[in-house]
Amino acid sequence: MTADNTLLADDACYLALKTRDARFDGSFFTGVTSTGIYCRPVCSVKTPKRENCRFFGHAAQAENAGFRPCLRCRPELAPHSVVWSIQDASYILAHQAARLLDESEAWGDEAPSVELLAAKMGISDRHVRRIFEAQFGVSPMQYLQTRRLLTAKQLLADTALPITQVALISGYASVRRFNAAFVQHYGLNPTGLRRQGTTPADQGITVKLGYRPPYDVAAITGFFKKRQIHAIEFVDDRAGSLRMGRTFRVETVGKVHAGWLLASFDPSRCHVALRVSDSLREVLPLVIRRVRAMLDLDADPQAINSVLHHSFPAGDGLRVPGAMDGYELAVRAVLGQQITVAAARTLAQRMVDKLGEPIETPWPGLTRLFPPAAVLAQASGDALGQLGIVRQRQTAIVGIAKAVAEKRVQLHGGADVNATIAALKALPGIGDWTAQYIAMRALRWPDAFPAGDVALHKALGVQGLKNPAKEAEQASQAWKPWRSYAVIRAWSGAMEAAAKTPSATELIAGGARSARAGGRN
Fold this sequence. Notes:
Number of helices: 22
Shape: globular
Number of strands: 11
Strand content: 5-15%
Strand order of the largest sheet: 5-9-8-7-6
Distance between the termini: 24 Å
Radius of gyration: 23 Å
Helix content: 40-55%
């Protein structure tokens, strides 16, 4: 990038900073040379002078330049910058590396290192360092350290966890190393960030999670409400009460953690207030990550809409609903094969009522946990048959449960997408539709596309063609790398909602011609 281009980009950042535009929250950070502090674009402090501002694409770059995080806007609350691209290989590899560093579940019991990162990606550690520093301006370990420190900062500010636990949860092997890193980077002792009056333990922990507008809250709460299973989740989407609650279980390092969470939307402030039970404190960073994925809080609407708006003009605020538990989502996807959403929900309800474990929560609507993988892996055909589940789906459910219980398949955002899809399709009763649906919602792959989906064919207007799956697949090439979002928009009817818009069939035909010609919208 030339100096003139850099200056123009900085001027654009300063304009967004002056207007406190939430659409750019997490897309860049502003370092103020007169204070040594770096802030989010939405920070409420007085706007600094232009000559005192330096702009960074990532918090790690700001910290590497010697800036400390603002205590008012709290950079750790900003939505993450999740970038997907169809550009050159180095660009793609660098962002895959960052994604792996962000996903603690991808590492299991291992401590992240450049060598292990390179091994997971199938390239040399030297190449990882080179492409990472070229893309982000910092080394992989500097990037990881910033993530750890910001996680610790949020835990210190919002919870009453002992410093020792904060250090361990944030990824530090010892309190001494944690204290030294904190003082070195922030010039503060960790205890100096403790807030008075943290939420009492019996009421859970409350943290805030930011997102970029536009965000169609009604659409995503409606999606989950249509599929909610009583006893493990509830959705309250009445006016003035946009919130979702559910139970949650996760196993890490051989220990099982179970509890509840409640997510309440505040559209006026572009954030979600998340309450988490005290029993989940030790895995709070993981819970936060899962909730961000479930509600798709890290999506960049500008990047997505630049590709999809022409074909789906009424869907700019739609997000791809994720899942708190990829295994649970996979089982529910199997139950939904070739039947209606209502019928699939009925089968899932019977499964939870019969095999779900009881749990105590403050919420009358949250009384059970979804059956764990170990239970369904041992379930007999008779037990599942009594729930109304046909034999083919019985085999698929047991197969998925065994694969997850034996850790042969990982269903979270840090998993290798292509390898996981291949592993899923190798299981009995799992076809391309189910694998793509799981990739879209559990693996958080933005380019998943269940080409054989009948509802998708109807929405796109190709159900009457000779090979609708092939026509849909060809047309979808124009929507890369955001085909998961295209699917959600097609299902919602966003193609037909705008006045004077070409018909779905015309759009598909045009997209198919563009794809065949190698063109791209």
